[in-house]
């Protein structure tokens, strides 16, 4: 990713990627060529909203990964999660790696604002090859919704594993569930709109994957793929973001961005009723819009898979 990229629910994470693709980030675009720098604000707002979920995931990782010296965030985007790593692991140096220099500029600025700039670095270049430039092996390498933007995921996992210190951990954020913002029947249009949007997002995501350079079709059995990369002790855990109604202004803005991106990316595949419903959801003057309706919430699940390089 440069991508909850998504970059989600973006991108870097729907990569918002919404990096929503269903699978989770919340990605949406009219085509599948993502301008990550243009998505910087969306990637930041998504990751900030999902911070409680990321904090839970990092706390879980911290029980297994004790006192890492170097943490590498692969496909860091604007560095929201990279900076969380610096906060959760105060003894660690954190390196944010991404293909987008403008996003890394934002990551560095965030680290300075948060007072962790002295142990925060950035590395720009194409993944996974740029990882050859690491000066030291990583004790923890995190890929948050970035792996699925690489054509050959199996080869990328092998490359990631080779950059680990013996006993080091690779953690990938892939899978989860499509985010939900509204009840099945929210009073306008035909019930089940979000499920229909999920199906269109799946089509978008598959097209995005097939259009990547060197794209290889791969069954998404992440523990098996981690094992095939020579890593051991695969574990999986999912984490919940539960922001019930009434929604905060930040949650409303995020929902509006997700629905807006969805409208832009899949509008041609929607029937006229669903398109009209989306238009009402996005009209700030409409009491039924996500900007004003009282029943809006954010419910999201992200899944983390880890494995260890044998000592």
From TrEMBL:
Regions crossing the membrane: none
Family matches, as PANTHER family: 2-METHOXY-6-POLYPRENYL-1,4-BENZOQUINOL METHYLASE, MITOCHONDRIAL, METHYLTRANSFERASE
Keywords associated with the record: Methyltransferase, Transferase
Bias (Basic residues) ranges: 13-22
Region Disordered, residue ranges: 1-29
Gene Ontology MF, one: methyltransferase activity
Domain Methyltransferase: 71-168
InterPro entries the UniProt entry points to: Methyltransf_25 (IPR041698), SAM-dependent_MTases_sf (IPR029063)
A Pfam family annotated for this UniProt entry: Methyltransf_25
Protein name stated in the entry: Methyltransferase
Keyword Transferase: yes
Residue stretches of biased makeup (Basic and acidic residues): 1-12
CDD domains, A to Z: AdoMet_MTases
Swiss-Prot/TrEMBL GO biological process terms: methylation
């Amino acid at each position: 990713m440069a991508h909850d990229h998504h970059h989600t629910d973006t991108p870097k994470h729907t990569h918002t990627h919404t990096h929503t693709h269903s699978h989770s980030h919340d990605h949406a675009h009219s085509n599948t060529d993502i301008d990550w720098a243009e998505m910087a604000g969306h990637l930041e707002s998504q990751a900030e909203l999902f911070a409680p979920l990321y904090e839970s995931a990092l706390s879980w990782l911290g029980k297994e990964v004790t006192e890492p010296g170097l943490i590498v965030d692969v496909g860091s985007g604007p560095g929201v999660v990279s900076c969380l790593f610096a906060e959760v692991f105060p003894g660690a140096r954190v390196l944010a790696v991404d293909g987008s220099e403008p996003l890394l500029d934002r990551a560095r600025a965030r680290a300075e604002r948060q007072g962790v700039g002295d142990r925060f670095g950035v590395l720009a270049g194409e993944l996974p090859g740029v990882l050859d430039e690491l000066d030291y092996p990583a004790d923890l390498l995190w890929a948050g919704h970035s792996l699925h933007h690489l054509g050959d995921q199996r080869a990328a996992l092998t490359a990631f594993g080779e950059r680990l210190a013996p006993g080091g951990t690779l953690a990938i954020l892939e899978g989860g569930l499509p985010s939900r913002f509204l009840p099945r029947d929210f009073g306008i249009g035909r019930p089940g709109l979000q499920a229909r949007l999920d199906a269109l997002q799946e089509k978008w995501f598959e097209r995005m994957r097939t259009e990547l350079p060197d794209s290889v079709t791969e069954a998404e059995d992440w523990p098996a793929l981690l094992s095939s990369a020579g890593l051991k002790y695969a574990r999986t855990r999912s984490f919940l973001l539960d922001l019930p109604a009434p929604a905060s202004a930040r949650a409303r803005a995020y929902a509006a961005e997700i629905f807006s991106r969805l409208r832009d990316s899949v509008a041609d595949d929607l029937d006229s009723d669903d398109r009209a419903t989306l238009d009402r959801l996005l009209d700030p003057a409409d009491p039924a819009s996500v900007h004003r309706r009282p029943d809006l919430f954010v419910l999201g699940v992200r899944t983390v898979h880890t494995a260890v390089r044998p000592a």
